[in-house]
Design goal:
Length: 108
């Protein structure tokens, strides 16, 4: 049950997708849909057979909310709460120092 010559030829044939050019209007519309959350990047790429870098290039070019190099910091709610508490403590200490309220010195 070996492979015949015709079987090996079928497996070596490459499927090359034709080059496509999307209109600017299409790109703007799709970026707007991505911004509205109608698609995830992954599902969009699969649906339209477009690479991830291409989609991000469209987003950076056609989305007013996103610019290249934008960094998003993701924190847990507990981290956000702790950060707020620490900032409040700093603000309170700065307020005390600014009003001239004496700070106890452990050396005296």
């Amino acid at each position: 049950m070996g492979k015949t010559k015709s079987d090996s030829k079928k497996s070596s044939i490459l499927k090359i997708r034709q080059r496509r050019i999307f209109s600017e209007e299409f790109k703007r519309e799709k970026v707007q849909e991505l911004n509205q959350g109608l698609y995830t990047i992954t599902s969009f790429c699969k649906l339209w057979e477009v690479s991830v870098p291409t989609v991000y290039r469209w987003i950076y070019h056609y989305s007013p909310e996103h610019t290249k190099g934008t960094t998003m910091v993701v924190q847990k709610d507990s981290e956000v709460q702790k950060m707020k508490e620490l900032l409040n403590q700093v603000a309170e200490l700065e307020r005390r120092l600014g009003l001239g309220i004496p700070v106890k010195n452990k050396c005296n």
